[in-house]
Design brief:
Layout lengths: L3 H27 L6 H36 L15 H6 L7 H4 L1
Helix pairs in contact: 1-2
Organism: Cereibacter sphaeroides (strain ATCC 17023 / DSM 158 / JCM 6121 / CCUG 31486 / LMG 2827 / NBRC 12203 / NCIMB 8253 / ATH 2.4.1.) (Rhodobacter sphaeroides)
InterPro entries: DksA-like_N, Znf_DskA_TraR
GO molecular function, one term: zinc ion binding
Length: about 100
């Protein structure tokens, strides 16, 4: 049996963490104003890494938000594709997954 309150708290904590990280990334990207070409090149490389981290974070935020909506709709823990129950071990690794192991593969 899935411990829904524990999963919800876990997802909400991760969502808050990601939100804080994305704010930090945004602040870091906004702070780059170098006029020196060498520094500008280094900043650009850093920006690409930060933008990639931001994109990844945004995707995870969308997945977590969808999982929280499934919790509210009493549909959490069931595959959105086939309706089978998602295994507890899978939810331990990917608490926001909408798919059972079979449909994810």
């Amino acid at each position: 049996m899935i411990d829904i309150p524990r999963r919800k708290a876990q997802l909400e904590a991760r969502l808050a963490d990601l939100g804080a990280r994305l704010e930090g990334i945004e602040a870091e990207l906004d702070s780059h104003n170098s006029r020196d070409w060498e520094e500008l090149a280094t900043e650009r490389e850093t920006e690409e890494v930060l933008e990639s981290m931001g994109t990844s974070g945004q995707q995870e935020i969308r997945a977590i938000t969808a999982a929280l909506a499934r919790i509210d709709a009493d549909e959490y823990g069931f595959c959105v594709k086939c309706g089978a129950e998602i295994g507890e071990a899978r939810l331990d690794v990917l608490p926001y997954t909408p798919f059972c192991r079979k449909c994810a593969g």
